Amino acid sequence: xxxxxxxxxxxxxxxxxxxxxxxxxxxxxxxxxxxxxxxxxxxxxxxxxxxxxxxxxxxxxxxxxxxxxxxxxxxxxxxxxxxxxxxxxxxxxxxxxxxxxxxxxxxxxxxxxxxxxxxxxxxxxxxxxxxxxxxxxxxxxxxxxxxxxxxxxxxxxxxxxxxxxxxxxxxxxxxxxxxxxxxxxxxxxxxxxxxxxxxxxxxxxxxxxxxxxxxxxxxxxxxxxxxxxxxxxxxxxxxxxxxxxxxxxxxxxxxxxxxxxxxxxxxxxxxxxxxxxxxxxxxxxxxxxxxxxxxxxxxxxxxxxxxxxxxxxxxxxxxxxxxxxxxxxxxxxxxxxxxxxxxxxxxxxxxxxxxxxxxxxxxxxxxxxxxxxxxxxxxxxxxxxxxxxxxxxxxxxxxxxxxxxxxxxxxxxxxxxxxxxxxxxxxxxxxxxxxxxxxxxxxxxxxxxxxxxxxxxxxxxxxxxxxxxxxxxxxxxxxxxxxxxxxxxxxxxxxxxxxxxxxxxxxxxxxxxxxxxxxxxxxxxxxxxxxxxxxxxxxxxxxxxxxxxxxxxxxxxxxxxxxxxxxxxxxxxxxxxxxxxxxxxxxxxxxxxxxxxxxxxxxxxxxxxxxxxxxxxxxxxxxxxxxxxxxxxxxxxxxxxxxxxxxxxxxxxxxxxxxxxxxxxxxxxxxxxxxxxxxxxxxxxxxxxxxxxxxxxxxxxxxxxxxxxxxxxxxxxxxxxxxxxxxxxxxxxxxxxxxxxxxxxxxxxxxxxxxxxxxxxxxxxxxxxxxxxxxxxxxxxxxxxxxxxxxxxxxxxxxxxxxxxxxxxxxxxxxxxxxxxxxxxxxxxxxxxxxxxxxxxxxxxxxxxxxxxxx
Length: 855
Hints:
Elements: H1 2-14, E1 29-30, E2 47-51, E3 58-62, E4 67-77, H2 84-91, E5 98-101, H3 104-114, E6 119-130, E7 133-142, E8 145-152, H4 156-166, H5 176-192, E9 199-206, E10 213-221, E11 228-234, H6 241-247, H7 267-283, E12 290-298, E13 305-312, E14 318-325, H8 332-339, H9 349-358, H10 365-370, E15 378-387, E16 390-398, E17 404-411, H11 418-422, H12 435-447, E18 457-463, E19 468-474, E20 482-490, E21 494-506, E22 526-535, E23 539-548, E24 558-569, E25 581-594, E26 602-616, E27 628-642, E28 654-663, H13 680-683, E29 690-700, E30 707-718, E31 731-734, E32 747-750, E33 760-763, E34 765-778, E35 784-797, E36 809-820, E37 824-833, E38 844-850
Parallel strand pairs: 4-7, 8-10, 11-13, 14-16, 17-19, 31-32
Antiparallel strand pairs: 1-6, 2-3, 4-5, 6-7, 9-10, 12-13, 15-16, 18-19, 20-21, 21-22, 22-23, 23-24, 24-25, 25-26, 26-27, 27-28, 28-29, 29-30, 30-34, 31-33, 34-35, 35-36, 36-37, 37-38
């Protein structure tokens, strides 16, 4: 027994159980061990003589009989960077506490400090006693901090990638976990790239330039990339081995002939690929299919991997009898027609669930109910019988009550006024809930153009007890105004360039409110634009327009007003006898109406335009006269339907078509003049024509992020009186980037990539077809970027006698588009014309897109 007491006393002595006056800290008393998880030490029967600092009397600590003291003072030593008051608070001790010596309070304080993972050592000493008061010192040894790190054994590009991943910030407290996490992160990085045998070591080197700081030197040997030599399947009869290989999108073999295939093994992707195999089997009716075993092992001859997968396919199953229960709203025959699953069809559970709940087009059974207010609708397919390879199903329905919309809340519109958002919302308080209305509302909010379409949130808050639902729509504002600014100098023409600004969320009602000018009044969804353009002394133009999309504020009836003026010269100075010019001045008024038949995607827009052309010795274009005035007044009716979605910047689905007819009064038909004999100025003083335009385009999201766009368009310019013929104005220019350079208002510029600008001018008929595959590289609203691969074919003709719809000039190419909120579309196309005309050999053409897509 004495022997055990001596051993215990020696242990306590090793951790410094002595106390003395403050002037002799070497003999101060540690009140407990610094070990984090050390249990309370049983020191019963051991007495330690202490010296009282004031009297010099010997004080005995009896570990078998703890004594209570009042904590009169706490000091902290050994720290350089940490706040001492915070450390005292973290310990859990505070002045005035009653503590037992010895006791658990000191042990708990040490554990609290260890938990911070900031220290290499933690000790608490009794500095002195004054009667029943005790003064303690918390002595800490801080862990070293990171002053920097460097890599050895890898390329700089890999170092840059790793810096962002390991997150070793300067000043970070170095613990064992920091080193372990760094090693694991680097190994994971190389595992993802197929380097499964990478070796990583981290060496901490003292930094002589900073106290208590270390440098990490990270040594990396990534080794060779481990590829997959073979993936062998056994047990498969219904599905070919080749198909199984194709289903494994990420886990692929490394055949000797492969150049582009990346073969690497990633455990998570391997598990995902195995699930794809089973999902495919299930879609073919093999619902019992499973993987009996799979093995991944190293090929000793190559160091690569081999994979063996043993499959059990089982029987192929079919749908048999399908019955409905719980349905009172719709008859079973109606539900069968919506379900589209028939007796004898291959049993495909994923397709069944899609037809019940998950059709993105809204043609499933749940949508049928939810579009009529049954928000709480549920359907549960239950297998009620299996006979051989046939499965009987019972569709158990809970219809629930029809839900009524109670409150509609809009969140996140910091700039756009709430009424602008609320007027496009289809879910109105007091009406029945409709899933179709919710989806349509999402589209309408996105097409406003003021919010990030990827961040539009829809949160229905159902209240089954009252049969109501609250709708919460959350939005995130994005920049929508656009600026155009370009300038240059040409020795022959002078200053050239353009400047313009388009405010798409303007508020004309706030122009007299000083607080609204930040920098311009905004928030009412109106559009105000002004643009000026100059190509030196050859042309100048100015246009101003204003659009109110909700005239009166209650219905989506648009109103547009615009004025414009343009001047073009032949480049000679005014003093030169050869000087010629054309000046066009005009304005327009437009009214648009949203139709409700055949559906409310249709619109009808009426536009009245009046303009005057004044020509003075102007022979640059092929006009019927070169001096005089021509007056043009026409009414244009545009009937169209636009269901593109969800964002007009990058539509993924839907269609957009419109047909327009612009007509002038048939002045010559109201006159008895013989227009074959009147002078030219009289003959063409009043412009008359009828002009037809047609455009149709479709968007589809066939797979992944790819979007397919198909477009067909055409135009025709006709006349009333054969004695006058076609007007010199309102013709079509075909070719190039579609930007109307040096072309006055009365010409339609039709872009066709891959060919020179205006390879056909003054055409009266045109056709154009486009097929384009798009892929988004970045969907960030501050810089939306997508690439295109396209095919185009088009041509123009001067009259019906020469019109040949099959004689088209084809082109192919690629391009990139960047949508910048403040500048609009910026991009380029490189096209290759495949059917050049006479004197126009096959060649590539580079087109720049600024501000808008070419027509």
